[in-house]
Structures are given as structure tokens and as C-alpha cells.
Specification:
Layout: E1 17-20, E2 23-26, H1 37-41, E3 44-52, E4 55-56, H2 59-72, H3 81-94, E5 100-107, E6 125-132, H4 135-144, E7 146-152, H5 167-178, E8 183-187, E9 192-196, E10 200-204, E11 210-212, H6 223-234, E12 239-241, E13 244-245, H7 246-250, E14 254-259, E15 263-270, E16 273-274, H8 282-298
Parallel strand pairs: 7-8, 7-15, 11-12
Antiparallel strand pairs: 1-2, 1-6, 3-4, 3-5, 5-6, 8-9, 9-13, 10-11, 10-14, 14-15, 15-16
This protein binds N-(5'-phosphopyridoxyl)-D-alanine.
Length: about 300
């Protein structure tokens, strides 16, 4: 098995199964209608739950954020959290998923193409897929850290909604990959880092203070971020939720990124400039441990 240089380690099981609108079907033939608004307009919401050793990480929080995003765009939830949990477990079982992720997507459904959402909404489309990831590669990445580049934040004004409309994120991540980096840190027009293209962004100042951007519509309220904030407070680690500039990030003692399935992963260089001594720093490693602990204590198989 070879790992793409910077993407997720591939690990496709034979007989992969997808869930689409009430049916479990082979992944290779799973499909939605050509006029599905998810396809036509990215009129859709998604969510990602990490799975580690058969445990669903921060599942309640991810399902709550899914419901919130769906509500924010005026769509009904197609299934209750209890039903989504049943589907999640069934997907894990059918796909023999131990480590990886569960991906949910809810679209406004299939209807004749018209920009305006229809008065009489069609049934939302519910898609769930499971994907195995190689835990040793993820752990190795945590041990070595990753490189990031800076990139202009060209997204819309409601980044708190986890929409599948990810074109600016895709362009930023692609630029990162082309530059030999794992992630792109998005920088707003005032020079402040908002977040990564698919991760929350953190720095540690020379004084040992952990900084991450405060929650506004400019960023996704990261679930991993929230768990780490709580764990850090309990572990007496000084954390400040505020904006930080790219210049501050260059001068940081440490930096790291967080996301479901990634936990906390050190950033060892930004735009080719080394951060700290170019290895995961002490505070980042402590945060990794705190998160691991918090996740293990909270997760239920
Ligand atoms: N990304 N910021 C953005 C823009 C994200 O897309 C994500 C998650 C995060 C981290 O959020 P969380 O800790 O809740 O995973 C922050 C997922 C993993 C994705 O797009 O695949």
C-alpha cells in the first residue's frame, strides 16, 4: 500500500458499502439523481466523524453540528440523531471499519433545476459513506508534523456552515499539495489567519500561550477544537481565543492543526519557514495527549 504524498493513506476494502436514502448498496454503483441539488448547486451539508479502534470520536457533537448546519440553510433533517447513529454503526459493521471516517452528506434533494429552493421541498438526499484509513500513517504524521502554506481566504461569509460548496478550500488545498505541503492556512484580507482549508489552525506564542481564532462566521466551529479547548482548560494550559496574523504565526514557538481523524498534528513549517525547532513541540505533544485522553474517555464503540 502506498500513501499519496500528502493525502489520506488509501485503504480501500473489498466490498465497500454506501448508504443512500435508506438503502445499503455497493459503493461502486451507489448514485444520486442527476438533478440532485447537491450535484447541481452544492446545496448540501456534510459532516465527518473520525473512527479510531472502532470508537466514534465526538459523535454527539458532530451530529449536533450537522443538524445545526442543515437548519441554518432551512432544510429539514431527514433522520433523527438516533437513526443516524444506527446507520453509522451499520456502516461500520458492513465496511469492517476499525480506523477511518464516516462521512454524511445531506442535500436539498432532486428537483427540476431552479436556483431558488422549491416551495414544496423534495425529500432530502441522505448519503453516508465509510472510509478506512491507515492508523500508523496518521500516527507517523503526528510524530513528524506537517508543512503548511498560506493562501488567501476566498470563501463566503458563512464559513460556520459546513457546506459541501468547497471550491475555495479545494483550490487552496491543491495549491498546498503542489507546494509539497499538507495544508493551506487561509489568510483574510487584514492579514489574519482564519483556519486551514479543512482544519482548525493554532499557534503557541513564545510565552507558551496557545492561540486559536475566536468563533465567528469566519470559521467552522471545529469539534476537535472545542474538545481541545476544554481539555486544555482542565489541564491548566493557557489558551486565548483570538485572531492571529500570519506574521505572528511565523514567529510562533509551535503551531498545530486539528480536525476529526487528525487529532492535533504539529505544523513544522509555514511557507517554508521553520516553526520552532522543526519538530512537534512540547505543548503540541501535550495537547495531542489531552485530546487522545478526552476522546478515549468520551467515545463509545
Ligand atoms: N474538515 N475547519 C474546516 C474548514 C474544516 O473543514 C474542518 C473539518 C475543521 C475541523 O473541524 P473538526 O474538528 O470538527 O473536524 C475546521 C473535515 C475533516 C473535512 O472537511 O473532511
Amino acid at each position: 500500500m502506498s500513501e499519496p504524498q500528502h493525502g489520506w493513506p488509501a485503504r480501500e476494502p473489498v466490498g465497500r458499502i454506501a448508504y443512500v436514502n435508506g438503502r445499503y448498496i455497493p459503493h461502486s454503483i451507489a448514485a444520486v439523481h442527476i438533478e440532485d441539488r447537491g450535484l447541481q448547486f452544492a446545496d448540501a451539508i456534510y459532516e465527518v466523524v473520525g473512527v479510531t479502534a472502532g470508537t466514534f470520536l465526538d459523535e454527539e457533537e458532530h451530529l449536533a453540528r450537522l443538524a445545526r448546519s442543515v437548519d441554518e440553510i432551512g432544510m429539514p433533517m431527514p433522520a433523527s440523531p438516533a437513526v443516524l447513529k444506527v446507520i453509522t454503526r451499520e456502516m461500520a459493521r458492513r465496511n469492517r471499519l476499525r480506523d477511518g471516517l464516516i462521512y454524511f452528506q445531506i442535500t436539498r434533494g432532486a428537483v427540476r433545476r431552479d436556483h431558488a429552493a422549491p416551495d414544496r421541498p423534495p425529500r432530502p438526499t441522505l448519503i453516508v459513506t465509510a472510509r478506512s484509513l491507515d492508523p500508523t500513517t496518521i500516527e507517523r504524521r503526528r510524530q513528524t508534523g506537517v508543512r503548511v502554506i498560506s493562501h488567501p481566504d476566498e470563501r463566503w461569509a458563512r464559513c460556520d456552515i459546513k457546506s459541501t460548496a468547497l471550491l475555495p478550500n479545494i483550490l487552496a488545498k491543491t495549491a498546498a499539495r503542489k507546494a509539497g505541503a499538507f495544508e493551506a492556512w487561509l489568510v483574510d484580507k487584514d492579514g489574519f489567519v482564519t483556519e486551514g482549508s479543512s482544519t482548525s489552525a493554532w499557534i503557541v506564542t513564545q510565552e507558551g500561550r496557545v492561540i486559536t481564532r475566536d468563533l465567528t462566521n469566519a470559521i467552522l466551529p471545529g469539534v476537535t477544537r472545542a474538545i481541545i479547548l476544554k481539555a486544555a482548560a482542565e489541564g491548566q494550559i493557557p489558551v486565548v481565543e483570538r485572531k492571529f496574523t500570519l506574521a505572528e504565526a511565523f514567529a510562533a514557538k509551535e503551531a498545530f492543526i486539528t480536525a476529526a481523524t487528525l487529532g492535533a498534528t504539529a505544523v513544522i513549517a509555514i511557507d517554508g519557514r521553520q516553526i520552532g525547532d522543526g519538530r512537534p513541540g512540547a505543548l503540541t505533544r501535550r495537547v495531542q495527549e489531552l485530546y487522545r485522553h478526552a476522546a478515549a474517555a468520551r467515545g463509545k464503540p
